[in-house]
Specification:
Layout: H1 7-28, H2 33-42, E1 47-55, E2 59-63, E3 67-70, E4 76-80, E5 86-91, E6 94-97, E7 100-102, E8 104-109, E9 115-117, E10 120-122, E11 125-129, E12 134-141, H3 142-153, H4 160-177, E13 186-187, H5 203-211, E14 215-219, E15 222-223, E16 228-229, E17 263-264, H6 265-273, H7 278-285, E18 290-293
Parallel strand pairs: 1-13, 16-17
Antiparallel strand pairs: 1-12, 2-5, 2-9, 3-4, 3-8, 5-6, 6-7, 8-11, 9-10, 11-12, 14-15, 14-18
Length: 296
């Protein structure tokens, strides 16, 4: 059946985030203005900001193609040659990299270029920011992000319909949390969803992502906070006040692994084995949700 458009969902969330951002910007000053406007421009992109690291230790970075180091005002500070390793070091003045120091440094490679951070390659661009620490944030296309999450969270051993369910859940989850933090949207580990860039993106994960491209779950005019875990031990855990996250019987025979809220990944695998489609799987674990497709 046709998917309803999501302009109203975006506008509703955009206005709420904008009101939150006004107070945050007033506190943080002009340093973050460019980051805020970058978010506004990318809403229809869709770009996801993933925190890769937050450390007082240096990070090893590199690029596959020539890149530029750009500050928060959009000024080019230096060129970064490809296929070399560089240390991004914390300092009291900001991040020190390749002869420049600034609290906001974007690594922007030429079109088609990749950025490496501590041995893993990422598409898009990477923001390095901080004083006496280095926070690395990957600005990545939504579908590239989802493909990596699907493989990291499930892997190619799962059946296609289970992988598709994972793709829609991952896409809905990140959009729910988008712009919920100052500098980034989600963590790259189990605090949000596991994301490993291009180092983990199998053909099966890519196929599941492409087959569900742009498909999301919505409830009450908002994206669904599509929490999930490996197995619920036979009964999922409900969340008070969130109707679509209720306690439900789970077909997975595996012991509880994770918080047990929302979709059980091994339960999804079993339902897929029984012939359920990804939409049937998701409709079971997230009761009352609707399916929609993002505007192209």
């Amino acid at each position: 059946m046709p998917y309803p458009k999501l302009e109203l969902v975006y506008k509703k969330q955009l206005w709420a985030r904008a009101m939150e951002a006004r107070h945050w910007l007033a506190l943080m000053g002009s340093l973050v203005v460019s980051a805020f406007w970058g978010w506004v421009e990318s809403v229809w992109g869709v770009t996801v900001r993933v925190q890769l690291a937050d450390t007082t230790a240096p990070l090893v970075v590199g690029v596959s193609l020539p890149a530029q180091l750009i500050n928060g005002r959009g000024e080019v500070l230096a060129d970064l040659p490809p296929m070399q390793g560089f240390l991004a070091q914390p300092s009291p003045q900001g991040v020190r990299l390749h002869g420049v120091v600034d609290p906001v440094l974007f690594i922007e490679p030429q079109e088609g270029g990749l950025v490496a951070v501590n041995g893993r390659w990422y598409s898009g661009k990477v923001l390095l920011t901080g004083y006496n620490l280095v926070m690395a944030i990957n600005y990545v296309d939504l579908e590239d992000y989802v493909a990596s999450v699907v493989d990291a969270e499930m892997g190619s051993r799962f059946l296609p319909e289970a992988l598709k369910a994972q793709a829609v859940a991952a896409r809905s989850y990140v959009l729910y949390h988008r712009n919920s933090r100052g500098w980034f949207d989600v963590f790259s580990d189990t605090r949000s969803q596991v994301y490993r860039g291009l180092s983990q993106r199998s053909a099966a994960a890519l196929e599941a992502t492409q087959a569900t491209r742009g498909v999301v779950m919505v409830y009450g005019g908002q994206f669904v906070n599509a929490m999930y875990s490996a197995s619920s031990g036979g009964q999922t855990v409900g969340v008070s006040g969130i109707p679509y996250l209720m306690s439900l019987p789970d077909v997975s025979l595996y012991p509880k692994f994770g918080h047990g809220i929302g979709m059980s990944q091994w339960g999804a695998q079993e339902l897929a084995r029984r012939g359920w489609t990804y939409r049937q799987i998701l409709a079971y674990y997230y009761r009352g949700v609707s399916f929609a497709r993002l505007p192209e």
